[in-house]
Amino acid sequence: MKTVVLQPRGFSLIEFMVAMVLGLILIGGAVSVYLAAKRSYTEVEQVADLAEHGRFAMFTLNESLRHAGFAGAANPQDIRTDDSLGTIVDDCDSPAAAAEVANYLWAVTATGGEAFGCIKDARPDTDVLVIKHVLPRPLYDADPEDLSAVRDGTISFPDALDDKEIYVIANSERGLLLDGADAAPDVREGNEFALGVAWPYRVQIYYVRELTIPTLSRRVLHWDAGAGAMAMTTEDLVPGVENMRVRFGLDSNSDGELDTYTDLTGATGNWQDVEALELFLLLRSATEDAQHSDTKTYQLGDVAVTPADDPDEYVPTARRVMVHNTISLRNPKLMIRGGR
């Protein structure tokens, strides 16, 4: 019987090439799946960030606007400034000046990046919104729930006035804007500010700040430890906000009901008739996507923005979302219905 011995041999060139081609196809498929998954993840992450930033920006503006014009029991028009009120560092020009409580709502469009004399870094041709109000954290002469508490005319409940705050001390007839470090008026009955209550005062000026990534920012009335005085300082809130536009709802016949919405031109000179706002924000992602091209047109109230037509101002490879909200101004509405 003859024994056959099989000699080992390697792959032929053709087999080797076929194996390489199949391997490259598998690797290419895996890479394609990875890149598609990464692109999808990046897109979802950017959209989620935009949605979150939009919600936070609207929430912050909404909270401020709902308090606009709130001055305790007094009408903002009936609040005067204490003669001893200290100079406010980097204060804004009228009507945004901190001491002008009566101008509790105002807006302009930034020209050349400037607004109200105190803002030098605004994004050109975006709206700047002024909001003034007091915080709903009143301080009293004594516990209002305790009828037997001693009332000596000095505001001290639940705390004394903070010397690093500005307050509005007001009753139902009038109010006084003063430093917490200054002598407060006697609020016992028979005096000018009888039964007056002290409310911490706030000024907020919202605008789009021209940074590498445009940002929703605000100038706020705040204690400046370095200057040892109250000052208007800048806070950055939400990155990626490229534009802000506002339309105003007017009650022209003082019946407490909206008659029309208008832009800044129509609102100027009629601020006491404004009782609602339409707020538009255009947000962009912080990172660009070379494979994305934004060809949409965004309608921000009366202004249309097409990033692809203006690449010098708007990065066309960034993803965007526009958010819009209508906000009723409760305090102005009450003042209008009450005949101011």
Automatic annotation (TrEMBL):
The keyword Lipid metabolism does not apply. Keywords: Membrane, Transmembrane, Transmembrane helix. The keyword Transmembrane applies. It comes from the Bacteria. One of its GO terms (biological process) is type IV pilus assembly. The chain crosses the membrane at residues 12-37. InterPro entries: N_methyl_site, PilW. Pfam families: N_methyl, PilW. NCBIfam families: IV_pilin_GFxxxE (TIGR02532). This is Prepilin-type N-terminal cleavage/methylation domain-containing protein.
